[in-house]
Specification:
The chain is mainly alpha-helical and 517 residues long. It has three domains: 125 residues, Rossmann fold (3-Layer(aba) Sandwich); 156 residues, Serine Threonine Protein Phosphatase 5, Tetratricopeptide repeat, CATH 1.25.40.80; 174 residues, DNA Cyclobutane Dipyrimidine Photolyase, subunit A, domain 3, CATH 1.10.579. It contains 22 helices and seven strands. The radius of gyration is 24 Å and the shape is globular. The chain starts with a strand and ends in an 11-residue tail after the last helix. The chain binds flavin-adenine dinucleotide (FAD), ligand DLZ and iron/sulfur cluster. The site of flavin-adenine dinucleotide has 27 residues, from helix 10, helix 12, helix 15 and helix 17. The site of ligand DLZ has 16 residues, from helix 1 and helix 2.
């Protein structure tokens, strides 16, 4: 075979310096990009995610073509579309008779399984390259994990600080501490709101994709009324510039705060661009460090932002690859309750949950603490089956890919991995939500009431969760002491908590599973 080199680029590999493009000559390469039904339907993605991925792919193809690359682009509505990556690569092999296929490994296990079959399926050479857009390699992480019982993120993060040299001076962490998280828990002040972030009006390409999604995915979850995500590298960089100028200084002070109707506060809103490959995480961290060096942002903000990227983001990716495929089936706490319907409709009197679901539906986004301490905490306390929660989180967010979603859902919020990632479950009663938000004041439930019909449901659910998981959780020294409080309550009070929780759980309407798959 003497044809060109075929370079398939997947929808979350929209990076000009991708390993499969580096060093290639343009007249000897055909880039293949494929909109395929299999990816659009393995779960029923939020409409904004579909628009985002298709629009960003089409813009990226145009950018490559403008730079002189040959791009073979297969659209979703092409009548000959084979519907899968493997099927489309097979058709491209027929068209181009390539001498070699060079592809960067997939971000998700499901897709990587398919790619690993290509060397046997196709007659030409197939080279699968590591995705080097991350700081940590999978083998480096596996070595670090070794036979540690807990894979504490903080220690991994320190390794990444040393590896990158970020906020390191003379071999020591700048400011003397590795982590300033303790300074990052300010409750919201009255009237707290963040500066507006740039919103990008849909251009012709995006409008065409909106038409496609409205036509073919009309019944999927979510609103398309306001689609403003960055879909090109230029737009993503504008969004990053605005974050560094306007939000970074307060990024950490209010990182755990929640305000009714304020959907992103001081968060960066950069995860969609990062996960598509439009932004480079290391370059963002270097930029954050430069803001600190220039005196434009305090150390706690800059360290916190860097920790999210070279700490948590890198850590969850490596954790995913270390634990798959078992992680997708993990259910340490044997949780079996169906997902309640209000996760889709937002129809609940719990004001915190209603607001988080509303933001999720309108924006395909909710910020971290809403995902963790409201939506996630409720699923944990109520004992929702991990597969149902995982599907929901994979469907509803524009930044959701299994490599980042699954560790956060299965291990961080549901403790389904048995505590390798989180040393204790992130379980909290209404008190926590009340302290960190302004949700409770106008809620139909009373956060100060512990049991009975009008009590905040998080209060009895918290004790129901602790009680039913006692055998597993009591030996954990980080949480075990809570049981002396429970025991001191006495049987009558305990009975009131358990009866209130059970009455509430009984009242939940299960969701129709067809929302997700
Ligand atoms: P910021 O608050 O501005 O944080 C900056 C960046 O740090 C993010 O853009 C993200 O890239 C990274 N980051 C922060 N926390 C995490 C984390 N726990 N794991 C990985 N990266 C992190 N993030 C996703 O990208 N996709 C998901 O599908 C996803 N699902 C989640 C599910 C649950 C239950 C939880 C608790 C968290 C999840 N996250 C996910 C992590 C985090 O909530 C989002 O990255 C963040 O809300 C995105 O908004 P932002 O860009 O404004 O983040
Ligand atoms: C999320 C997504 C969707 C909805 N559609 C496509 C697609 O049609 N073509 C494509 O290349 N990528 C798509 N993606 C992103 C992929 O799911 C993503 O690249 C894989 O998760 C990588 O493992
Ligand atoms: Fe949520 Fe409870 Fe507060 Fe209502 S009272 S907003 S349910 S935490």
């Amino acid at each position: 075979m003497s044809g060109p080199v075929l370079v398939p680029i997947l929808g979350d590999q929209l990076t000009r310096t991708l390993a499969s493009l580096r060093g290639r000559t343009k007249d000897d390469t055909v880039v293949l990009m494929m909109e395929v039904a299999e990816e659009a339907t393995y779960v029923r993605h939020h409409k904004q995610k579909l628009v985002l991925v298709f629009s960003a792919m089409r813009h990226f193809a145009a950018e490559l073509e403008a730079a002189g690359w040959t791009v073979d682009y297969v659209q979703h509505d092409d009548p000959d579309n084979a519907g899968s990556f493997t099927g489309e690569v097979a058709r491209a092999v027929e068209r181009h008779d390539p001498r070699e296929i060079k592809v960067v490994e997939a971000g998700e296990w499901r897709v990587q399984q398919a790619i690993e079959e290509w060397p046997d399926k196709f007659a030409c050479e197939v080279e699968i390259l590591p995705d080097d857009r991350f700081v940590a390699t999978r083998s480096e992480f596996a070595q670090w994990a070794g036979d540690r019982q807990h894979l504490t993120m903080e220690y991994f993060y320190r390794e990444m600080r040393r590896k990158t040299g970020l906020l390191i001076k003379d071999g020591k962490p700048v400011g003397g501490k590795w982590n300033y998280d303790a300074d990052n828990r300010k409750p919201p002040k009255e009237g707290l709101s963040a500066p507006e972030r740039p919103r990008f009006e849909p251009d012709g390409i995006t409008r065409e994709v909106i038409g496609l999604v409205e036509d073919r995915f009309a019944d999927n979850f979510g609103s398309l009324e306001s689609f403003h995500w960055p879909v090109t590298r230029d737009q993503a960089e504008q969004a990053a510039d605005a974050f560094f100028k306007q939000r970074l200084p307060k990024f950490c002070d209010y990182q755990d705060a929640m305000v009714f109707g304020e959907d992103d506060l001081f968060h960066s809103m950069l995860s969609t661009s990062l996960n598509l490959g439009l932004l480079d995480p290391l370059a963002l961290c270097e930029r954050a460090e430069a803001e600190y060096d220039a005196g434009n942002a305090p150390l706690n903000a800059v360290e916190g932002f860097i920790r999210q990227l070279i700490g948590w983001r890198e850590y969850v990716r490596c954790f995913y690859w270390l634990k798959m495929p078992g992680l997708a089936e993990a259910n340490e706490l044997a949780a079996t309750r169906p997902l309640p319907e209000f996760y889709w409709t937002g129809e609940t009197d719990m004001r915190c949950l209603a607001d988080c679901v509303r933001s999720t539906r309108d924006n395909a986004h909710a910020h971290h603490i809403q995902r963790l301490m409201v939506l996630g905490n409720f699923a944990l306390l109520a004992g929702i089956a991990p597969n149902e929660v995982e599907d929901w989180f994979l469907v509803v967010y524009a930044d959701a890919y299994e490599w980042v979603e699954l560790p956060n859902v299965a291990a961080m919020i549901l403790y389904a991995d048995g505590g390798e990632l989180a040393t204790k479950p992130y379980a909290a009663s209404g008190n926590y939500i009340n302290k960190m938000s302004n949700y409770c004041g106008d809620c139909a439930y009373s956060v100060s009431e512990k049991t009975g019909e009008g009590a905040c449901p998080f209060n009895p659910l918290y004790w129901h969760f602790m009680h039913r998981n006692r055998e597993r959780l009591e030996p954990n020294h980080r949480i075990g002491r809570i049981y002396s409080t429970w025991d001191r309550m006495g049987e009558e009070r305990q009975g009131e908590y358990l009866a209130s929780a059970e009455a509430f759980l009984e009242s939940l309407t299960p969701a129709d599973k067809s929302w997700a798959r």
